[in-house]
Amino acid sequence: MPAIVNYLLHLLTAAALVLVFFVIYVRVTPYDEVLLIRQGNCAAALSLGGALIGFSITIASALLHTLGYYEFALWAFGAMVVQVLVFAVTTSLLRMSKDQIEADNRAFGGLLGSISLAIGFVNAGCIS
């Protein structure tokens, strides 16, 4: 396969995976991040931004460390599952995420975003 086609295939797949992750993530959360962000809620932006960056770090690692397209897609999908599961477990343990995010508690949003980043880095390292 020509290099440009391979590049475009991987780029489009990675972008589609980030979009799918975004859609799943905002449906899993107990609050409407997009609405909250439109209203200027920084806590929601920090939480969602951290989740997107954390997942993207894992996608980048999968792109760098896998041998073929299907292996990349499989690892990326697995990483998506891990990111969503970690969010579910974290918010279950913290029990107050909905109230804290909706109240624009930036410290709490930063914590959720940082946890997502940390898991993204761990996920990325496990793929390498």
From TrEMBL:
Q: What does the record say about its membrane topology? A: Multi-pass membrane protein
Pfam (any one): DUF350
Q: What is its main location?
A: membrane
- Membrane-crossing ranges are 6-28, 40-66, 72-94, 106-125
Q: Which UniProt keywords apply?
A: Cell membrane, Membrane, Transmembrane, Transmembrane helix
Q: Which GO terms describe its cellular component?
A: plasma membrane
List where in the cell it is found: Cell membrane
Q: Which family does it belong to?
A: Belongs to the UPF0719 family.
Protein name in UniProt: DUF350 domain-containing protein
The species this protein belongs to is Massilia horti
